[in-house]
Amino acid sequence: MTTDTPIQIKKAASYTTDTLKKKSLQKTFKQRALENELEGTCVIALAIILASYMGHPLAIKCLTISYRVGENQFDKGYDDYYFVGFWVVAFTFLRAAAMKFLFHPIARLFSIKPFAKRERFAEQAWTFSYYAVFWTAGMTIMYNSPHWFNTSQYWIDYPHILISKHMKSYYLMQLAFWIQQVYTLHIEKRRKDHYAMLMHHIITIVLIVSSYYTNFTRIGNAVLCCMDLADIFLALAKILKYIGLSVTCDITFGLFALSWPITRHVLFSMIIWATTVEPSRYLDMKWEPEKGKFFTPFTQKIYIFLFVSLNVIMVYWFAMIVRVIMRVLQGKNAEDTRSDDEDEEDTKEEKPAKKQQH
């Protein structure tokens, strides 16, 4: 039988202390972020709006679309990131305000008493609201564009340097949302698929930025529309679950389970296929930045790699969806297997500080 030496005991104690300190700092960061995000982002947004009203050039760039060159024609440039930065702050404020002043009161109307459950109800209600609005906007833009269910239009007449005001606003606000989602991912209750979700967000941001810069907003619009529909049904199913409409929740989850493979695997795979085989038919595949051309065999491989990486993550999630479908077929309610168990947390009493916040 062996015993730990004093040095080993000291090292173990030091390791435990460091781990506890790290967790404590992470918890403190989350608490401070949650306690101050509404007021902090409100002050920043109002300051930018006031500065814009007073004519400050940088504030004006934060609130308006830059690089107008003609009637409903806009170029792209570095000033666009002022607009993106403002909307990162604005989405953080809108999310916090909607959750506190709209969705938490609605949750109380449905007698959702545990704070933790009301919080997740509010999170899903915000998610549903965002995706419903931006999926509709994205589909409207695509419907009124040449690339409506026509993948060849991703490449015909490339580069598509000038874009409409609606397309530019939609694209930059989507970028702002996904940047804001990285922050949100770290302040919400951590889920089992945290790292898969983080990787998904990073790849999405890289694809939005690169496609915008290289003048491939048409294909970016199509990809975003493919991704957003399933999230509408998933968020709605969770909302229905929290308010106790189990049967309607299962039906909505069925629509989610049906829309996911159609949009995120079939239609998205068609986009990957189009990116693989079609460009050489319509493009000279030359790197000419001065002409707005950035698509070469090398950049094509990068896009395919990013698309396939995104698809791999979604296959991992689809395997989880199949597990939920099996639960429903066994007579159980639909549950999101990506979420941690809620029973223990939901039975805890609300903390006084949180009662004051909400």
From TrEMBL:
Cell compartment(s), UniProt: Membrane
GO cellular component: membrane
PROSITE patterns: TLC
Entry-linked SMART domains: TLC
Segments crossing the lipid bilayer: 40-60, 80-107, 128-149, 194-213, 302-322
Membrane topology: Multi-pass membrane protein
A GO molecular-function annotation: sphingosine N-acyltransferase activity
Region (Disordered): 333-358
Compositional bias (Acidic residues): 338-347
Residue ranges occupied by any TLC domain in the UniProt entry: 116-330
Keyword Membrane found: yes
Pfam families: TRAM_LAG1_CLN8
Bias-annotated ranges (Basic and acidic residues): 348-358
GO BP terms in the entry: ceramide biosynthetic process
UniProtKB keywords: Membrane, Transmembrane, Transmembrane helix
PANTHER family: LD18904P (PTHR12560:SF0), LONGEVITY ASSURANCE FACTOR 1 LAG1 (PTHR12560)
Family from the record: Belongs to the sphingosine N-acyltransferase family.
Protein name: TLC domain-containing protein
Natural source organism: Parasitella parasitica
